[in-house]
Amino acid sequence: MEIVEGFGIGVAVILAALLILFVRRALVTRSGGIIRLSVRVSTMLDGRGWSPGFGRFAGDELRWYRMFSFALRPKRVLSRKDLAVERRRLPEGQERLSMPADWVILRCTSHHAPVEIAMARSTATGFLSWLEAAPPGAVSPRMASQDWPAA
Known about the structure:
- The structure is a single chain.
- The chain has two domains: 1-30; 32-147, Pleckstrin-homology domain (PH domain)/Phosphotyrosine-binding domain (PTB) (PH-domain like), CATH 2.30.29.
- The chain has helices at residues 2-29, 95-98, 121-132, and strands spanning 34-40, 50-58, 61-66, 76-79, 84-89, 103-109, 115-120.
- It is α+β, with helices and mostly antiparallel strands.
- The protein starts with a helix and ends in a 19-residue tail after the last helix.
- It has a seven-stranded antiparallel sheet, with helices on one face.
- The longest helix is centred in the N-terminal third of the chain and has 28 residues, at 2-29.
């Protein structure tokens, strides 16, 4: 009987964790402005270190939340005024196995450190429009268009 009770408790804990993940996502995404993207959190191994998540536009910030996290706060916050796109590339090697076929990778720089963001090609267009649409008087971010693959 103890085994059945232990198994039942384990299943209940797993279901509660899944419920919390879904409620968290609903709370974060309820106001809209959400895009699906991955951020490279580790560069130790080539093509590895990507963490799936979603981004939320909030004024001049892109707030990135990990997909499988219980935190209500974003893992990273990218400010439009501090962000510049260095280059755009297609997934290479191992990255092609972990990302959808229509995704592109943007290598960006900010005041903190370089960051690589992967998103759908159509989402990248919207992201770049948001990045360029700085308020009047703000400096427009630099973008190296010669490195960009054809659409």
